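Sequence in, structure out. Go.
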Amino acid sequence: MKNFIKNLVLFFIVLTCFYLGLWQLDRADEKLKIQNDFKSQLSKPYVSLGQLDKSPKRYTKVESFGSFFEPYFLLDNVVLNKKAGYLVFSPFLFGENVVLVNRGWVDNYSRQKFPKITTPKEKINISGYIKYPMKLLELSNSNITSNEPYILQNLDINKISNILNKDVYPFYINLESGSDYGFQHLVVKNENKHLTHYMYAGQWFLFTLVGIIFLIILNRSRGKKNE
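Output:
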């Protein structure tokens, strides 16, 4: 009975390691696709935001004429040069449509005070590229504060849409570096991120192989004892 339990536990560990290896391969493929999308879109011209459908390819370069409006939203726990801060997201109205715009990084002043964010009132031209929200680590039970300024743990566009009482596009625009309406720009680093996942996958598959070897040794030893 003890040997059966040992085999079962070891078999479960082997399966878990193999699954984690496959998961890392999927992550690598995803990161490689993101890298290829970034490279392919980088050389293309800007497209008018109003000409796109509501599910364009990420990193599509866009431009639009419209105006920012309040309230703005602060995405928490974003680190730049080992310093914690926020990404500032402002809703942008073009025609009758609304899209969120990432205006860049600001200091959180060690949470002693909120940063001062100004919202341009006039109609302006903006340019940037499209990104889709990614779920980040939440350090609070509540994803979004109930009062202004709204602090977000994750960019939940559905909740933001409810706050604004307007339909909001499912993606956001990363404002172009050097914009008069932006803050500190975060450089996108997509080069070779997939290689890290291939390395992790190799480690998990190595653990799988070691587990299989242990299973073989364990059962051979038991067979010799029974002879």
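Check: The first helix runs from residue 2 to 42. Helices lie at 2-42, 157-164, 193-226.
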